[in-house]
Amino acid sequence: MTSQSPPGRPLEELRYALAEADTHRPPVALRTRVIEAAEAGRPPGLAAGTDTAITPIEAYRRTMVSFDSVLSDLSEAEWHTPVLRDLDIQGLVGHLIGVERQLHAALGIGPDMVTDADHVESTQADAHAQTGRPTADTHAEWLDLSAATVAHASGLDRQGLASLIAMHLFTTSVERMLVIRSFETWTHEEDIRRATGRPLAAPDSARLRLMTETAVSALPAGLAMIARPRPNRTARMVLTGPGGGTWQASLDRGVPGETDVRIIADAVSFCRMVANRMTPADIEAVVTGDEALAADVFAGAQALALD
Question: In sequence order, which residues have a C-beta less than 8 Å from that of residue 183 and are 6 or more positions away?
Fold first, then answer.
């Protein structure tokens, strides 16, 4: 007997469809045809509608252009709109100036300074230094620093991009840091959009794909941050929409095993949750399997937020 879901409830309908898929094995010939047709439409694991892959450098360049466009559209009064913590928009851009200056130090292209410190505390001085400063100067300094980051990264070879740098209490490669910088800058662009009543704008699918890959791969780190390690557990992450994909994700950086929990969520909403701008309830995820493990995955994802 087939269970019936309430009409007009697409997530419930999807839940029932997944349950039936788990309990009814399709004929081998049908399964083969479906897989062949799917792979003809897109590479395995890549959401339909995702643009051609781009480099982390291009991702950050595009994010910089988008953020610059929003700043250029602000009125003088809007620059002083409260936006995050105790900061107005000008102070928030000052925070990003501080992050970029630390990145330059880590890359060896700027003055020496401590870079492996708390993300927020270590940039507060730069944020507060914008008070009373012409907003055009704040904008120009951030733009110059970001452009210098892109220019330097564009000149690095494969080895240089893979080299490790220490920033904000974690160590990662230069190219992954560029994706993290794209993620944060997009998040703060949306902070500004919310504060000034502008519509939110998701990244293009190529940038979003880099962001979702990075977020899923960082889940073990998030679980460690909240002291909920999950050794030998595996989550099947299905992030839907352009820029999403499917991952069999080990939650302890080991080899993925059998699926303990399956989580289906919209890719953009998942990234907003990782940025701590949405809650698990907000993203309306479909969970099958170990629900307690899913709750830990969500908490670990939110712990990754830099703010």
Answer: 211, 214, 215, 271, 274, 275
List the domain range (segments joined by +) for residue 209. 204-307
What torsion do the CA atoms of 39, 43, 49, 52 make, to the nearest 10 degrees? -150
**Does residue 41 form part of some domain?**
no
Would you tell me how many other CB atoms lie within 10 Å of the CB of residue 31?
11
CA angle (194 as vertex; 193, 198 as ends), nearest 5:
50
In this predicted structure, the answer to whether residue 20 has a pLDDT above a threshold of 50 is no
**CB 246, CB 236: distance < 8 Å:** yes
Mean per-residue pLDDT for 37-50? 53
- Which sign does the torsion angle of CA 270, 180, 304, 162 carry? positive
Distance CA 183, CA 150 (A): 15
Same domain, 69 and 91: yes
Q: Which two tokens stand for residue 116?
A: 């492996």
List, for residues 56-98, the tens digit of each pLDDT value.
999 999 999 999 999 999 999 999 999 999 999 999 999 999 9
Question: What digits encode the pLDDT tens for the residues 277-290?
Answer: 999 889 989 999 99
pTM for the complete prediction? 0.83
Domain boundary among 201, 228, 259: 201
Residues 161 and 282 in one domain: no
